[in-house]
Structures are given as structure tokens and as C-alpha cells.
Amino acid sequence: MQIAIALFPRLTALDAIGPYEVLQRLPDATVTFVGERTGEVRSENGFLGLRVDATCDDVPDPDVVVVPGGVGTRALMAEGSAIHDWLRTAHETSRYTTSVCTGSLVLGAAGLLDGLTATTHWSAYEILRKTGAEPTGQRVVEHLDRRIITAAGVSAGIDMALRLAELLVDADAARAMQLMIEYDPQPPFDAGSVEKAGDAVMARLTEYSATKD
After folding, report:
1. Which residues are catalytic?
2. What is the CATH number of the domain that holds 105?
3. Domain around 19
4. What is the pLDDT of residues 190-209, one digit of tens each?
């Protein structure tokens, strides 16, 4: 079973590495990090480097596609972006084509989400809508008849990967993957959504965001 995780400049690292930690543990799974060209790409703040091991052309028909998010997805939305042709071709034969966070913007730009509900980071709902999708605040959105799954920001990618493990193998396999990585989230704060965060948290987020690109 071949799993292709797309990498590109200015991605959110955990959007790729979270699903990787789950999916690479499945029986007979091979994970390949693919991109427009091989070599290192840096995360959105430039602090972390990840390596693209194969070009998209080298992996034309993976069983599973994962497109992570990050500010770098905006460049991939451009008309004629090389990843669009790869996604459309790969999706013809993939068992599941998936995204995490703003990776859904790339799926949408490639025409894979037309008329479908989909999720993304809460700040990008209107951008997603412009690609032809219908944004929803659900953590993971499945269209199993279309073999499309989208996940919201960062940690939702792990949830999606566990669901993929169930779909690809069975529920006990997914539970085993969850136990293997000791995924038992118990965050010290309950501020993981706009509805829960409150005005003070949103003000602080705005302040911090102003110092970043």
C-alpha cells in the first residue's frame, strides 16, 4: 500500500507528520514524501526542513494521497500549478484522496471538491468556498462514495489518519495505531475553536499573527 504525502515550501509540518506517524505503522504501508522537485522544503516559519524524496511524476498512482496545509498552499492554488494534474490523475485510482487544514484549498483548486462539503482551518472558509466547495466546521468530513476526506487544522489530521486506518484495514488496526502513538489528548485548555476561545484569546491571536507573514 503506497501512501503519498505532498510536501511544499511553507507547509505546516504537523499536518504532514501527524498523519505520517499513524499511517506509516500500518501493515505493508510505504510512505513517500512527494513534491514538485526532490530536496528540502522548509516549514512556514523556516525553522524546520523536510525532505521531498520523489517527484509527483515518480508516484503517479498512490493508494492514499495526503495534502497538508500551511500558507504555502496559496501558491499551489494558482491556475496551472503542477500539483493539480497530479492530484486529478492520482485521484482516478487512489483509494482515498485526503487533506489536512488548508490542504483542502489545493484539492478544491484542482477541482476535486466541486459541490462537496469540506473542512479546512477556520480562517480559510471563504477561500475554500471560492474553489467550489461548501465549508463546514466539522473536524473530519468524509465523502466515501467520492473517496475524498478532508480534515480541519493540525490535530484533526491525526483523527483523519486513524479513520483512514480503519477504512484501509479495520477498527482494531486503528485502535492499535492510536495506542502505539499514545494518542490520548487531554489538553490543559479548551480553546481549540473560535466558539470556545473568547475575545481575549482572539485578541492575543491577532496580536501574535501580526508579527508573522
Report:
1. 101
2. 3.40.50.880
3. 2-186
4. 999 999 999 999 999 999 88
